[in-house]
Design goal:
With 450 residues, the chain is mostly helical. It has 18 helices and two strands.
Length: 450
């Protein structure tokens, strides 16, 4: 009898499902909820899925519903979801001093999209160390505000929100209004923005920046930017551009809106616009209620949310590099070029095809499940599309629809969050992993397009 071995994509998909189910069971325990509170199984599943998929949408008030134990469960789910099953698997193997096999190394290689099997365990441990360091810095920043305000409980609040921000989860313990009560607090804003941006860049990017920084200080020869890899340059330039575009559009559309930026002084407007632009990179925290923004702003935000962060980080979306390569492919076709190039570097055809698959699959899932939610929910179209884009891109921002979801609507949004986190291309690959390996050449034919 032939034994079927799980592929990398299968392991990742199954790992998130098992994690969400275990989290659901833990949240249903009496010890997980505060005295006098209760949670139904669908809500527990929704919150667990939102946590492990680092999305941030919630059908219950996290701080008021869950006890310290329940909040700790959520924190573990967020950390697990942010780093992924691969990193945690390697950590467990190292802690128990088990040998990391070739199949384990291939799993790590596939997860981080690396070209070599050399030093993979070391790379994974660097991910963990960097995560703990940056989350520690974030917790220190939050503690400057939360400890004076909440006392000893502020330590837990600082740790929880630092992990939530770094993992781009956007889940808070502050009463269900996210960070709206701190819209004018510079420390909270700066700390959150820092954690969102640095995690959204992806681990390989800031490793390369640190490595080149040390090398540049020692040798001081050549341009720092020229020595960067194409991936790092694309990520940094696109991230900066999208943040500035988000700030500009928010100021343009919301400058005189009495419900958002209108009453603020100029420095406050700029800080609120910057926070909103950054949090759209799949973070989920908010200093302004999303339902207060004008429709023009929300339509622009849909695009920014769909793009999301950068590869090999904790952010979701179709990723910045994917969009840049698709735009480059479009211009190459318009100019009649056979090769796609970015910054004087040719991009392989299989990478372009993968980008097309990712965006097409993501948009298809978004469209189909949005129609499904509209059919069972009968809610406002913009609010529904905002909710579903936020779910597929694991953003966690909502225009107030999450709390009004029907049981079937909750399941649809939970499925969307799951598909958004594991990655549409991962789902597509797992169905083809056991396909035929025969290569069949069909006769060429022409069709009319455009």
């Amino acid at each position: 009898m032939k034994r079927h071995k799980l592929t990398t994509t299968g392991i990742i998909m199954l790992g998130f499902i098992i994690g969400a189910l275990l989290g659901t069971l833990c949240l249903l325990l009496p010890i997980s909820v505060r005295q006098g509170q209760s949670i139904d199984p669908i809500d527990a599943l929704f919150v667990a899925m939102s946590s492990i998929c680092v999305t941030g949408l919630s059908t219950v008030n996290i701080g008021q519903t869950f006890s310290a134990f329940g909040q700790a469960v959520l924190l573990l789910l967020i950390q697990f979801g942010g780093l992924g099953i691969v990193t945690f698997t390697t950590l467990v193997l190292c802690l128990f001093r088990r040998r990391v096999t070739l199949s384990d190394r291939m799993l790590i290689q596939s997860a981080y999209n690396l070209d070599t099997l050399t030093g993979l365990v070391r790379i994974t441990m660097r991910v963990l160390k960097a995560t703990l360091l940056l989350e520690g810095i974030g917790a220190l920043g939050y503690s400057l505000v939360f400890i004076p305000e909440y006392g000893i409980k502020g330590i837990w609040y600082s740790i929880f929100h630092s992990v939530s921000a770094f993992c781009n989860a956007g889940i808070d313990l502050l009463g269900g209004n996210s960070l709206c009560g701190y819209s004018d607090n510079i420390v909270i804003n700066v700390t959150t923005i820092f954690l969102i941006i640095v995690s959204g860049l992806g681990f390989p990017v800031y490793w390369e920046i640190l490595r080149l920084g040390r090398s540049h200080r020692r040798r001081k020869n050549g341009s720092y930017i020229r020595k960067m890899s194409l991936h790092t340059r694309i990520v940094l330039l696109t991230t900066l551009s999208l943040i500035l575009i988000g700030v500009g559009l928010t100021l343009l559309f919301e400058y005189d809106n009495p419900d958002t930026l209108g009453p603020m002084a100029w420095p406050g407007k700029l800080m609120a616009a910057l926070f909103q632009s950054v949090t759209l990179r799949t973070a989920g925290f908010a200093t302004i209620p999303q339902e207060c923004f004008r429709s023009s702003s929300c339509l622009a935000y849909l695009v920014l949310m769909f793009i999301g962060g950068s590869p090999a980080g904790t952010a979701g979306g179709v990723k910045t590099v994917t969009i840049v390569l698709l735009i480059a492919s479009m211009f190459a076709n318009i100019k009649g070029r056979t090769d796609v190039s970015v910054m004087h570097r040719k991009i392989a055809d299989d990478i372009i095809r993968r980008c097309v698959a990712i965006v097409t699959f993501s948009f298809s899932v978004l469209l189909i499940l949005t129609v499904a939610l509209l059919a069972v929910q009968q809610s406002n179209f913009l609010d529904t599309l905002y909710e579903m884009t936020s779910a597929i891109a694991t953003v966690g921002l909502s225009r107030g629809l999450t709390g009004a979801l029907t049981p079937l609507g909750k399941l649809i949004v939970a499925l969307t969050m799951y598909l958004g986190r594991i990655g549409p291309i991962t789902l597509a690959l797992v169905f083809n992993s056991r396909g035929s390996s025969d290569h069949v050449n069909y006769p060429e034919s022409k069709v009319i397009i455009g």
